[in-house]
Write a structure and sequence with these properties.
Largest sheet of chain B: 6 strands, mixed
Order of helices and strands of chain B: EEEEEEEEEEEE
Distance between the termini of chain A: 36 Å
Number of strands of chain A: 11
Radius of gyration of chain A: 13 Å
Strand content of chain B: over 45%
Number of helices of chain B: 0
Order of helices and strands of chain A: EEEEEEEEEEE
Shape of chain B: globular
Helix content of chain A: under 10%
Largest sheet of chain A: 7 strands, mixed
Shape of chain A: globular
Distance between the termini of chain B: 41 Å
Number of helices of chain A: 0
Largest interface: A-B, 33 and 29 residues
Number of strands of chain B: 12
Oligomer: heterodimer
């Protein structure tokens, strides 16, 4: 059972470079999301999607783009990396986009460093 | 404002003893969900337990129980018979409606260390 798969697990970028963090889930979940985790701040929502073709901004969307062309995939794009985007990124999915039950399944995380 | 507060940055517990991790929340919504996640040093987020705002009984999952006191807006995690493998960061989170979907609001976490 693959669950939520994130790649790469580690990445070092220079300021101004672009990259894409990949996220794929094999549970046919409608809801997918990206969070970032910074020391002492818990996790914060970047972008989310409630189904293919539907995305919306979270709490900290600046500097990030997303798209959802299929149910399975939800890539996160950094167009011009900045040191403030150094963080650990988590992709998460759930079968119930608007419900309050239903576990949020997390990927293993991607550690990004921007020099 | 919707917020989760975990006031214990770090805690120690002796192996085989019980420990309570505190969590208080703030929301004006009537419907919400409360979660606890464990994050070991390897970094993954592991779901532990869930409590719905309309659930009258406290949730339990094996050695984990959630002490839900709605009037006080608290959702403390109780781990019974602590094990060395319980050493990790623990996050309390609240799931609320957000635009078209839901989002989790996380607390800052409590680092639990289990002593042999």
């Amino acid at each position: 059972n693959a669950g939520v798969t994130q790649t790469p697990k580690f990445q070092v970028l220079k300021t101004g470079q672009s990259m894409t963090l990949q996220c794929a889930q094999d549970m046919n979940h409608e809801y997918m999301s990206w969070y970032r985790q910074d020391p002492g701040m818990g996790l914060r929502l970047i972008h989310y999607s409630v189904g293919a073709g539907i995305t919306d901004q979270g709490e900290v969307p600046n500097g990030y783009n997303v798209s959802r062309s299929t149910t399975e995939d939800f890539p996160l794009r950094l167009l011009s990396a900045a040191p403030s985007q150094t963080s650990v990124y988590f992709c998460a999915s759930s079968s119930r986009p608007q419900g309050f039950t239903g576990e949020l399944f997390f990927g293993e995380g991607s550690r990004l460093t921007v020099l | 404002a919707q917020k989760i507060t975990q006031t214990q940055p770090g805690m120690f517990v002796q192996e085989k003893e019980a420990v309570t991790l505190d969590c208080t929340y703030d929301t004006s919504d009537q419907s919400y969900g409360l979660f606890w996640y464990k994050q070991p040093s390897s970094g993954e987020m592991i779901f532990l337990i869930y409590q719905g705002s309309y659930d009258e009984q406290n949730a339990t999952e094996g050695r984990y129980s959630l002490n839900f006191q709605k009037a006080r807006k608290s959702a403390n995690l109780v781990i019974s018979a602590s094990q060395l493998g319980d050493s990790a960061m623990y996050f309390c989170a609240m799931r609320v409606l957000y635009n078209q979907g839901g989002k989790l609001i996380f607390g800052q976490g409590t680092e639990l260390s289990v002593k042999p």
